[in-house]
Amino acid sequence: MIQSVRGTKDLLPETIYQWHYVEKIFKEVSEKFCYNELRTPIFEKTEVFHRSIGEATDIVNKEMYTFEDKGGESITLRPEMTASLVRSVIQNNLLNQNPIQRLWYFGPFFRYERPQKGRLRQFHQYGAECLGSPYPESDVEIILLADSLFKSIGITDYTLKLNSLGNEISRDNYRKALVAYLKSVEEELSYDSKQRIETNPLRILDSKDEIDKKIVENAPLILEYLDDISLNHFELVKKNLKESNIKFNIDNNLVRGLDYYCHTVFEFQSNHLGSQDSFGGGGRYDGLFAQLGGKPTPAVGFALGIERILIILEKLEKFKDWNDHVDCFVISLGDASITYAHSVAGQLRERGLIVGTDLIRRSMKAQMREANRLNAKFAVIIGENEVNNQSVLVKNMNGGDQVEIQVNEISNYEF
Ligand code: HAM
């Protein structure tokens, strides 16, 4: 039997309602914040990601699904959205129409990672990006939007980790100091971290290796290298968050796995997840537009892993008592009733009701069982008598009482 590709998952009817629920609420909350949806193709020219995420990152180095298409072009399945979104905004001149663009997205992404719980090769993200403002209030708006999304689906006990990487000058100065320190302890570092000293030293700060972690404890602190502009930006972000009652923990070692960040970076973590405890993250990326050939444009955003959010919701027993909500199940008995039953089902659907029907000519008992399985509120029973009388029997599946009504009254009957 042919199996699905490792690290991918079928979303079966029995759980798809959870996805619909999250998607619906996230759309509604995004709209409340005046964010508009943007959809881009699932693949891009590989260059889009090389020029944005960074050559030395794990994503570009090890995790991209890259292939040559039949025309000889290098194509990559998108590993994240920010680069694609910025490409699209530049290409479609969206910022000429409005100097602020607030955008959200939802869809599949692809990374060749080692699969485990909460880590897939095709996974899904919701994300939001606020383009065009250099001011801390846009960093704060984006975090407030994330907080509203979490609260609206019942996640209140998460941790927000916050750090600042400062502007380019601060980051370069810090990088130099960090490299000098790491070189002084190079022999003790893990193999991976040794490789990263020159290519991606900041990434060593969030190494999972126990010895690396000890070494990092004595590394120079990024906050000590922030210049006045960067410090001021960070102070205002923190002040605004406090005033908005958003709790956060400063984590000096939070650098994130993508190269385009500057100033504010943040991550959302949950105790309900195992080792993959981060269910979302983001930050400011003021340099990305220019890197992708656009007019320099300040921007900030975040993305959330939907599979990880669903794990949290499961742990919170959010979906414990959820049932299908079929309004009526139309039971048809005997060949003569089939067409009539489908016409009745059609009338009920036109009223906006959710209506199930039988398609395999089951017995009365078996169709009643099906109505129960679907949690139908009413069974609408049609046998030969009802066809002859142009009526239907309506049985309340909770109360049990049963009434006969004429089919021409069906549009007025209170189900
Ligand atoms: P990221 O931290 O790479 O950031 O991914 C965001 C979230 O996507 C993660 O926190 C995680 O929940 C989920 N995720 C990532 N990889 C996987 C995977 N293999 N399996 C399951 N879930 C995964 C970004 O993608 C940035 N584009 C965020 C951003 C937007 N920054 C600014 N704007």
Question: Summed up, what is this model?
Answer:
By secondary structure, the protein is of the alpha+beta class. It is built from 15 helices and 16 strands. An eight-stranded mixed beta sheet has the order 1-5-6-11-10-9-7-8.
What is the element layout, followed by pairings?
Blueprint: H1 13-32, E1 36-37, E2 43-45, H2 46-50, H3 58-63, E3 65-68, E4 74-77, H4 82-91, H5 94-97, E5 101-110, E6 122-131, H6 136-153, E7 158-164, H7 168-184, H8 191-199, H9 210-217, H10 228-243, E8 249-250, E9 262-270, E10 278-284, H11 288-291, E11 299-305, H12 306-315, E12 328-332, H13 338-350, E13 355-357, H14 364-373, E14 378-382, H15 384-389, E15 391-396, E16 402-406
Parallel strand pairs: 1-5, 7-8, 12-13, 12-14
Antiparallel strand pairs: 2-4, 3-4, 5-6, 6-11, 7-9, 9-10, 10-11, 14-15, 15-16
The structure holds histidyl-adenosine monophosphate.
Note poorly predicted spans: none
Shape: elongated
Strands, total number: 16
Rg computed from alpha carbons, rounded to a whole number of angstroms:
28 Å
Q: What is the CA–CA distance across the termini?
A: 46 Å
Task: Report mean pLDDT, rounded to a whole number.
Answer: 95
Question: Helix- and strand-based class?
Answer: alpha+beta
Give a short account of the largest sheet.
8 strands, mixed
Helical stretch tally: 15
What ligands does this structure carry? histidyl-adenosine monophosphate
How much of the sequence lies in strands comes to: 15-25%
Order of neighbouring strands in the sheet with most strands: 1-5-6-11-10-9-7-8
Q: How helical, in percent, are the residues?
A: 25-40%
